[in-house]
User: Fold these one by one.
Assistant:
Number 1:
Amino acid sequence: MMYDEETIRDAQAGLPGAMDALLDAWLPVVMGWCLRLGASRVDAEDLTHEVFLIVFRKVQGLREPRAFPAWLYGITRRVLAAHRRKAWFRRWLPGLEPAAVDPNPTPLDAAQTSDVGRQVWEALDMLPEKHREVLILCDLEERADSEVAAMLGVPKGTVKSRLRRARASLRELVPELAAD
């Protein structure tokens, strides 16, 4: 993904319109991360909003604008992890109902309800987080392994081995994928 370091510097300086430009450029990316990495019961819009509240509060502290994608992804990971911890805890509290089903499904909802689509989403939910995020970043978002390594703060070889394991696990969990 291409981005303008100057926009990030402008946002850090508090120039008018810079935060809007940053939001316009990165909102779809963060929303995609939240949708794909957040599991099936996540409200991606709320989590994306939470991520950008943090970004707007802390962007001045970012030392190197070139590191913005990795910094933003780190914030997104932490927000998602906090949400998962809360959801896990709420699941065990008596009397709490799961979130209501949306009466106006999106195309993503339709894909999730198809048989293989449902199996893939369930399988993604079952993968360890470190494997799921590498699979999503590399295969779904088509990011280079070197970019993913920088975003996650791990060596490139670690990304490759996690990706290999994630793909193998996904094929085991959804046999229909092995036929393709």
Number 2:
Amino acid sequence: YLAAKAKELRKEKPTLLLAAGDMIQGHNWANLSQGESVIELMNAMGFDAMVVGNHEFDFGSEALKKRIAEARFPILGANVEGLQALKPFIVKELSGIKVAIVGLVTSETPISTHPRNVAGLRFLPVEEVSARCIQELKGRADLILFLTHLGHAADRSLAEKVEGIDVIVGG
């Protein structure tokens, strides 16, 4: 049903279907397969991109790597160092408009999941990474969208402190 509805809505106008994190954990349907069932649904729905949330790490890095490999859409995390499968950003063209989508996850991830789940990973400061991504995307995109899993207050702070962000889609 959800895949059919997404397909129907896409016919109306140029569309991005995005997920702002915490998709693969939290419901028995998701937890029993360590998120595999959710990725299957998201693939069927044709998601364009997802940012990792802090709970994507709850099953550990190896399980997350499997979910990323199963996804037929990019999973973003510009401020996560040490997990090569994550992309910092993508650029998609919609009706002739180049839209950059940058993914950011909260720097509190190491304390909001068990430390062993993020062993070997670093969560870099959001503002520094954001400014670096914007510089890298200058001239490559007409619109810069940040897909975040930071929380509303942190999204507002990011918008106030970092120039060049056109849109924030947060979760």
Number 3:
Amino acid sequence: MFENTSRIEAFSDAIIAIAMTLLILEVHVPILTDSSTHGVLESLLEVLPHFLSFTLSFITLAVIWVNHHTFFHRLEGTDGKLMWHNNHLMFWVCVIPFATAFLGQQPFVPVVVALYGAVMTMMALAFTLMVRHTFFYTHLLPESVSKKSRKNEYHRSWFGVGMYSFSIPLALFFPTASLVLFAGVIGFYFLPNPFDESEEHSHQ
């Protein structure tokens, strides 16, 4: 076991920050052929799908960053397998800007929406596998963290995997419903984390 997680956190923070920045590069300033108010509004409407896909992915990456920070903040160290689990997660984080750009260009094409869902599924699965390894196959968490708390967090991480997986076949028939589902996953992870609550009670 390595003593601390500072290097792995710094590495991950940099990748997530770069991925968040790359998202905006696909939101191009419109070229105006008509400078009237109506012309400007029409040009902005053309950019709107790109901006909405940017917003969706930016918030998703923000949620990933918060969860990633919270996850590593609890640990007393890291190990080689955890570092590779984290590399796996960062790989899919790096793919998100590509899937986002494609979604912005073709927001209602079933296969494009399904592809976005597939990338998000793999990202969520990578995080879940990292949680599974750390919580049940290492001694990186303090002994004060109960098995119940670990199971709560682990089961919670599967929600994203399940919903994103469901979005793939759903997108092939109802792409708009999958887009709503993506937003719903974000909403779920804004809810209070039962793992955090149990940790607070255990220290009172």
Number 4:
Amino acid sequence: WQQISKEEQTELIEIYESTDPMLKQNSAIAVKLTEWFDDQKVKLSNKSRTAKLWLSYVQYVQLVHKFIEAERKSNWCMHVSATRQMLNLFAASGHNNYALSCRLYLQSVEDLEVNHPDIHAQFVIGNHSVRRTEKIWSGIWTDLSIEQILMRSLKGRGGVIGRGISENILNVWTRTMHRCA
């Protein structure tokens, strides 16, 4: 690490102590520090296979975090970007079915803006995930929402679980559930 000036030190301290350091992530000193850090990661990866393994592990964990953040914040662009980057993760880990499904999903997403611009517009404004409240971190996946709601109704008061699930009970419960709700 090369010597940094007093002004750069002061700027780094300001970034560190600010309430939202992401606002200054494009400042000259932040870019310089990021470049140095990336250079150190490359040097470390070249020296040790173990370090390379752990750095790639951290990278994949950050990718999964990015994907979860995209869903929770209902950020469509981040969702598509993270999903595209996850293709390599699926292929490298041997999850061929996920890799194939993900590739097909991304192809349909790319065509969405042309074929269905109204749906694409809804996704861009954040309507691709389910929200029960308008809090920033409250978005969840559609399949998770269905599972939570269905399981709650199955196990809750008046649900099927605990009565013994026969075909007749399940049939009656399914046909009357919407009226009870």
